[in-house]
Specification:
It is a single chain. By secondary structure, this protein is α/β, with parallel strands linked by helices. The chain is built from nine helices and nine strands. α5 (74-93) packs across α6 (108-116) and α8 packs parallel to α9. The longest helix is centred in the first third of the chain and has 20 residues, at 74-93. It is globular. The protein starts with a helix and ends with a strand.
């Protein structure tokens, strides 16, 4: 839906089809005031998702606000790959996998996996207590059983091991942050800033992840534009991972790195 449709369906509490079937519907005084308030906030470039307080991801409604990054459509590709791999693991091992979501943010990845992979056990970690609070609210909204942990990567997970680690990390180079669209300035810098070259998180993840993966375990990471070759080299140089696939997004950009401990 376009922004006008999103605003009106939100204010009128209806779906898109109803919006067009009842074209003669008029806004009362309160609803007109609400639309006016939304438009004024939007004029400041505040993201519409924050204004409305929700977004759809993987066919599910998630609450969003300034505590976390706004889920992007590209991240659905990361989740879809995890679902495919989980199905294969279930068939080969005869059990559903144990999954770790690093940097869970709004919880959209963890909740989507919980709703699409029956019986799996999911742990979701984030360094931000505010983001974890929002993620828990989204898990409660969808009655998803997820173990949320405040952790800087694996710091709070000693002795744990998983069949799959999945992450949509901060990957924007620090010097590029100021040049981004103003809407993005409303989102938490912690979830965007990937260090000087955008690869700080990947260096830390790749150097540690093998210690938290079971034999044959998978590491799935969303990556930024133009980062595939450098991250691919990191994985190869680690001597721990074999790259299975680099999945492109809807614009043909290499977006998801799928690797495993062979």
């Amino acid at each position: 839906m376009n922004e006008a449709e999103l605003v009106l369906t939100h204010v009128l509490n209806c779906d898109r089809l109803s919006l067009y079937l009842d074209k003669d519907r008029e806004l009362d005084k309160d609803k007109s005031a609400l639309v006016s308030s939304i438009l004024k906030r939007r004029q400041t470039c505040e993201p519409l998702q924050y204004i409305l307080g929700s977004i759809e991801f993987m066919g599910l409604k998630f609450m969003v606000d300034k505590r976390s990054l706004i889920p992007r459509p590209e991240t659905e590709i990361l989740v879809e790959q995890a679902i495919i791999i989980a199905a294969k693991l279930g068939r080969s091992a005869g059990k559903q996998p144990e999954i770790l979501d690093i940097g869970t943010g709004s919880g959209c990845i963890a909740v989507s996996l919980a709703k699409n992979i029956k019986g799996c056990r999911i742990t979701a970690a984030d360094i931000s207590p505010e983001a974890l609070e929002l993620a828990q609210q989204n898990a409660d909204l969808h009655q998803a059983q997820i173990d949320f942990i405040q952790s800087d990567l694996f710091a709070s997970l000693p002795g744990r091991s998983f069949d799959m680690i999945i992450s949509n990390p901060p990957y924007i180079p620090t010097p590029e942050l100021k040049g981004l669209a103003r809407e993005i300035s409303f989102e938490p810098v912690l979830a965007l800033d990937g260090g000087r070259d955008g690869l700080d998180f990947y260096r830390r993840m790749i150097s540690q992840a093998h210690r938290y993966l079971n034999n044959g375990g998978f590491l799935l990471m969303e990556i930024g534009f133009g980062q595939a070759r450098r991250i691919e080299n990191m994985l190869k140089e680690s001597g721990k991972f074999e790259i299975i696939e680099i999945v492109k997004d809807y614009n043909g950009i290499e977006r998801v790195m799928v690797s495993w401990i062979s």
